[in-house]
Structures are given as structure tokens and as C-alpha cells.
Amino acid sequence: MQPDISVKHLSKVYGDGFQALKDINLEINRGEIFALLGPNGAGKTTLISIICGIVNLSQGTVEAAGHDIVKDYRKARQSIGLVPQELNTDSFETVWDAVSFSRGLFGKAPKPAHIEKVLKDLSLWDKRNNRIMSLSGGMKRRVMIAKALSHEPQILFLDEPTAGVDVELRRDMWDMVRKLRENGVTIILTTHYIEEAEEMADRIGVIRQGEIILVEDKSQLMSKLGKKELRLQLQSKLNRMPGQLTLEPIELSDDGYELIYTFDSQQEQAGVARLLRTLGDLGIEYRDLQTRESSLEEIFVGLVHE
Ligand SMILES: Nc1ncnc2c1ncn2[C@@H]1O[C@H](COP(=O)(O)OP(=O)(O)OP(=O)(O)O)[C@@H](O)[C@H]1O
């Protein structure tokens, strides 16, 4: 299947000589949720802005829904909806008018039935005759999404969709994004809430200093780079690590009451069984044990600070 977005050897040098993107190669498949992660200034917004035709590329090619974003600008742009980071909603217009007008900007004929569907899907139908400036922050954010969907794009970019949004609205947005994906829309989101990528994304791309350093299936990434930890609370204090355990990746807590064993998520459980057997042989008893997996956040921090 042809990817919905295809980026080949893309570089960007800004007017002041700063190279913001270096030889980016990336394919995003139809109907997936792709999370683009990276520290501040890594080049996320630059990459999105180039794909959306807002910033010119320096080198390379980009196709959106099969259309070259330079040679076939109009068609490429029509296939994309963008929800920018900045909310731009100090508008006297009504919700209905603003969303309908957005559609017109893409040269598409009016289609009230589609606008109605978008507003209903985003729980904005009751507010359709309200002025945008009178809405709450969360509702304004929904209006931004409705505008981005007004022209029936195949691809939707969400740049920091839930920055400054409360937990409840964030969950609503996640549900809504999943619904869009079920309808076949390809979604690319950037986020600083790694938890959001962990919850939502099918695949994760990590960008650092203008380079894509990793693209991976989320679940594979978590099992490949993730660590598991087993913590054992001991019945009685250990003054030092027994010699039989010194070869294991194991630590003794400062107070001597806890053993912490770290292993790769992919590794089979043999190490755990061996450890528990050794403890039994040594007569070390524990009163409780817990296991914990590393979060995407920990994996991400490890990656970008390497
Ligand atoms: N118009 C410009 N001229 C020169 N440099 C720029 C311009 N726009 C962005 N940059 C630089 O390019 C780099 C990438 O910026 P970009 O906004 O793409 O990063 P980002 O990953 O989106 O960061 P954030 O997470 O902070 O939004 C930064 O170092 C930034 O200072």
C-alpha cells in the first residue's frame, strides 16, 4: 500500500543558515496514528510546517496522499488538515460560519451535511450558533479541529493537541482522535505528554537535533528498549549483598530492606526464577514483591539524552 506521507532526503536550512532538518526519511501509513516526539527545538514544527506547505523545504521531496507538496501544492494541501499549536480563535463569527468558511478556503463546494457531522462528532452541535469568542478554551480547541476537518482531509496533523487542556478534555480528545482513525484518517501528532503517545500511537518517531533517530512500532519499542524491575521487600535487613548475587543485575537499597532486580522486557523470566531460587537457598525471606515496566517516558528520556 502506498504511504499517505512520504518524506525523502528532506533537509531544511533557515534563512539565517541554521539547519533545522537533516536528511529526513519517513513514511506514514494510511490510517495510522503516528506520534512525533522530540525535545524543544528538535524540528517537529518545521517538519510539519513543510509537509503542510507553510514553510519551504531546502532539499528533498515530500508527498502527501500521493501528491508532491511542491509540484502539486493544491492537491497536497487539500488532503491535509492542520490543527496548529497556537489557538487563533478571537472570533466574532459563529462556530457554524467559521467551520463552513474554512472549507471554502480549500476550494471545496459547500457541504452542510459534512459540517453538521463534524460538529456533531466533536460535540459542538449545540454551540453551532454561538460566537467562538464566547466559548470555553476546550470548546475553542474543538472548533480548531472542526475547522481542520471541514474540507474532509485524508491526513490530520495535531501539533500539541492537548497542551494546557484538563485531564477530562484530554481523554475526550483521545477518544475523538481514535474515532477519526476508525474512519480512515491518518493522524500525526506531536506532543510533550509522552503518556499521550503511549496511550494513542501506533508508531512513534523520535527526532533529535533535526534528525530522525528512531521510528518504531510502539509496542515493539516498549518491549525492545523497556526495562522491567522486580522489587523484593525483605523480612530482615541485609547488611551487604551476598556473594552469590553479585553477578546479577541487582541492587540492595540503602536501608538494606529491599532488593531491586532489573532485566530487559524481552528477556525470558529465567533470571527471575533463578534469583528467587538463590534467595531460597540463602534463606533470605521476603514479605512482598512488585514488578514494574519502564514507561515510554523513561525510554524517551534515555534516547534523547544519549
Ligand atoms: N524561522 C526560523 N528561522 C531560523 N531558525 C528557526 C526558524 N524557525 C525555527 N527555527 C529553529 O529551528 C529549530 C527547530 O525548531 P522547531 O520549531 O521546528 O522545533 P520543535 O521541535 O517544534 O520545538 P518545540 O517542541 O519547542 O515546539 C530550532 O532551533 C529553532 O530555533
Number of strands: 14
Q: On the 0-100 scale, what is the average pLDDT? A: 88
Tertiary shape: elongated
As a percent range, the share of helical residues equals: 25-40%
Radius of gyration, rounded?
Answer: 25 Å
> What structural class do helix, strand and pairing data support?
alpha/beta
Tally of alpha and pi helices: 10
Write down the CATH class of the largest domain. Answer: Alpha Beta
Separation of the first and last Cα atoms: 35 Å
What kind of sheet is the major sheet?
Answer: 6 strands, mixed
Domain ABC transporter: 5-234
Pfam families: ABC_tran
Keywords: ATP-binding, Nucleotide-binding, Transport
GO molecular function: ATP binding
Topology:
Blueprint: E1 5-13, E2 19-28, E3 33-37, H1 44-51, E4 59-64, E5 67-68, H2 73-78, E6 80-83, H3 95-105, H4 112-121, H5 137-149, E7 155-159, H6 167-182, E8 186-190, H7 194-200, E9 203-208, E10 211-217, H8 218-225, E11 227-234, E12 250-252, E13 258-264, H9 270-282, E14 286-293, H10 296-304
Parallel strand pairs: 3-8, 3-9, 6-7, 7-8
Antiparallel strand pairs: 1-2, 1-4, 4-5, 9-10, 11-13, 11-14, 12-13
Helix pairs in contact: 3-5
Question: What attributes characterize this protein structure?
Answer:
10 helices; single chain; binds adenosine-5'-triphosphate; 306 residues; Rossmann fold; Alpha-Beta Plaits; alpha/beta; 14 strands; 4-stranded antiparallel β-sheet; 6-stranded mixed β-sheet
